[in-house]
Amino acid sequence: MTIYRILFLTVVLFYFDAYSQTSNNNSWIFKFEKNIEKPFTQFEMDKIIDAYGAKKLQTIISEKALEKFYKNILRNRVKIYTKKYYPEENFPKISSIGPSLNENDINSEKFNPLLYDFPFYSKKPHYYRVSQTDFLVVINPQELE
């Protein structure tokens, strides 16, 4: 009787092991826009150097996964919108996670999202108000395929 139990348990374990290895779980395949294929611009490289230094830039360029990650942040995931400011709104201020900004610094050329402690690994969008201006910085989540 015990030999049948051992044989049954062995068959069940092999079945579940084989099933778990064949399941189609692509939870780490990210979706990227086509603009990721273009090389870094000088503005983007300057932003990386400003935030992390020249040595880190070389590391990012040498690792394709890191290169795509940072290009996606700089080109697609961080957006600046104009939305009327209301004193009673609940958006966190951008100064709570990095250097304070004024409205002269808030354009796509000057703004460096890498200087801030944004939740780039979050699965939901995050919104930050630039002081008491009408500017809103939106961090979109990384999309999966």
Brief summary:
This protein is an alpha+beta fold and 145 residues long. Helices cover 38% and strands 10% of the residues. It has one domain.
Fold and architecture overview:
The chain has 145 residues and is α+β, with helices and mostly antiparallel strands. The longest helix is centred in the N-terminal third of the chain and has 21 residues, at 2-22. Strands 1-3-2 form a 3-stranded antiparallel sheet. The model has no long low-confidence stretch (mean pLDDT 85). It contains 4 helices and 3 strands. The protein has one domain (2-139). It has helices spanning 2-22, 42-52, 54-62, 64-77; strands spanning 78-82, 126-129, 135-139.
Cα gyration radius (Å): 23 Å
Kindly state the percentage of residues in helix: 25-40%
| Helix-and-strand structural type | alpha+beta
Total helical segments: 4
Q: Numbering strands along the chain, what is their spatial order in the largest sheet?
A: 1-3-2
Total strands: 3
Average residue-wise pLDDT: 85
List the helices and strands and how they pair.
Layout (H helix, E strand, L loop, with lengths): L1 H21 L19 H11 L1 H9 L1 H14 E5 L43 E4 L5 E5 L6
Antiparallel strand pairs: 1-3, 2-3
Helix pairs in contact: 2-3, 3-4
Keywords for this entry:
3 strands, alpha+beta, 145 residues
